[in-house]
Specification:
alpha/beta; Rossmann fold; extended; RpiR family transcriptional regulator; SIS_dom_sf; carbohydrate derivative binding; DNA binding
Length: about 120
């Protein structure tokens, strides 16, 4: 598990809709024991929020008895996008060049639309 290899200068991010997942709580404890900073995106007043160094509270109330929670997923995605944009802006052009390089390297892994067989073929 990579959580046990973290150092006090490292940062780990844990994301949870409930803040109560057993496996994630175990991992979060390992992060804290390593001395690393733990940033969480989860509801406030949850075990995961209590373990965090910094909790970005996402308190969305949904009736999960009837349907799968969509609002909380969208809220998590919005916060993650804002954080990603903030990091990209802070890192500047060097990050943009790095991301372009990563994207170029992934192009070869995609199938072209012509190479995909359909049932009609």
């Amino acid at each position: 598990m990579s959580a046990v290899t973290l150092k006090p200068t490292d940062v780990a991010v844990c994301i949870s809709q409930s803040g109560r997942s057993k496996d994630l709580l175990i991992t979060a404890n390992l992060v804290r024991e390593s001395g690393a900073t733990l940033i969480t995106l989860c509801p406030s007043q949850t075990p995961l929020a209590e373990l965090s160094s910094v909790n970005l509270a996402i308190d969305v109330h949904e009736d999960t008895e009837i349907y799968t929670p969509l609002t909380s997923r969208i809220a998590h995605l919005v916060v993650i996008d804002v954080l990603a944009m903030g990091v990209a802006m802070a890192r500047g052009p060097s990050l943009v060049n790095h991301l372009k390089s990563v994207k170029r390297s992934l192009r070869g892994l995609r199938l072209s639309p012509k190479s995909i067989k359909t049932h009609e073929d």
